[in-house]
Design goal:
Blueprint (H helix, E strand, L loop, with lengths): L6 H9 L4 E5 L3 H9 L4 E4 L3 H4 L11 H14 L4 E5 L9 H15 L3 E5 L5 H9 L4 E6 L18 H16 L4 E5 L3 H10 L4 E4 L7 E4 L1 H4 L17 H17 L17 H12 L2
Parallel strand pairs: 1-2, 1-8, 2-3, 3-4, 4-5, 5-6, 6-7
Helix pairs in contact: 2-4, 4-5, 5-6
This protein binds 3-methyl-2-oxobutanoic acid.
Length: 286
């Protein structure tokens, strides 16, 4: 069994140009599969709102939702670095709220780090969390919690003016003491620049190759999430088709009496069949 990685291992991987493979998971079985596959990190993203809970976006997701899904993931992947995603409302109000909620992730769900969205506008929150001793990762570029005000799930940093915002955010995240940075939905040229400019590990989801590793949403790469597929997703399976076909076959088997078969039922203990039949007869008259 591989040893659980920590912050220093990720710095070492960065130094050695060894890429980090990172995926989201929200439940026990997916976490088990991720650990068995040798995943370096798991994010319990607030994307669970869309992928698992059926909301239109991430805004309704609560701290309690995130904690209970982190606990399930930790049970499934005890030897993998797990990051909890701070949901909308858990860090916006005050620095002390941000610290209290980050600490909840640590104490109640045994995560290794937390992540929150934003750079300049949440710099004091990132700093307060880092100073409390909780590892914190910044997330900038396309940030789903603010996709409403941003005009939807749109790539960021594609013009010089909008790239400035991303660059200022990246500098703020490092300045605040975050141990890592996640870039989402920006051009690879900007990713490469930020990767060279910062000394902390820089990861990408939809931000191209030139950085320290990649994150993907498990529901997207497994072909489970049906509402939409971002441009940056590579599908590795079609779970929706596999599961729907299995369910259809089950419905057919039940309707036609093909399930259960003899191998799926329990049998009366050998030697007591006559006594059993007599007992049933007795009940006919009761
Ligand atoms: O919630 C999540 O899964 C995320 C990713 C989109 C980066 O924050």
């Amino acid at each position: 069994m591989a040893k659980k990685k920590g912050r220093l291992d990720f710095l070492e991987m960065k130094k050695n140009n060894e890429k980090v493979a990172w995926i989201t998971a929200y439940d026990f079985p997916t976490a088990m599969f991720a650990e068995a596959a040798g995943m370096d990190m798991i994010l319990v993203g607030d994307s669970l709102g869309m992928i698992v809970l059926g909301y239109q976006g991430t805004i309704p997701v609560t701290m309690d939702d995130c904690i209970s899904h982190c606990q399930a993931v930790r049970r499934g992947a005890p030897n993998t670095f797990v990051m909890g995603d701070m949901p909308f409302g858990s860090y916006q109000i005050s620095d002390s709220d941000a610290v209290a909620n980050a600490v909840r992730f640590f104490k109640e769900a045994d995560v290794d780090a937390v992540k929150l969205e934003g750079g300049v506008r949440v710099e004091s929150k990132l700093r307060a969390i880092a100073e409390s001793g909780v590892l914190v990762c910044g997330h900038i570029g396309l940030t789903p919690q603010s996709s409403g005000p941003m005009g939807g799930f749109k790539a960021q940093g594609v013009t010089p003016e909008s790239a400035r915002f991303v660059l200022d955010d990246a500098l703020a995240v490092e300045r605040a003491g975050a141990y890592a940075l996640l870039l989402e939905g920006i051009p690879p040229e900007l990713t490469e620049f930020i990767h060279k400019r910062l000394s902390i590990p820089v990861y990408s989801i939809g931000a191209g190759l030139p950085c320290d590793g990649q994150l993907i949403i498990c529901g997207d790469m497994l072909g489970q999430f049906q509402a939409f597929t971002p441009k940056f997703v590579k599908k590795y399976a079609n779970v929706a088709e596999v599961v729907t076909n299995a369910f259809k076959n089950y419905v057919d088997d039940v309707k036609t009496g093909k399930f259960p078969e003899d191998q799926h039922v329990y049998h009366i203990r050998k030697g007591c069949e006559t006594e059993y039949a007599a007992m049933l007869k007795e009940y006919e008259k009761k």
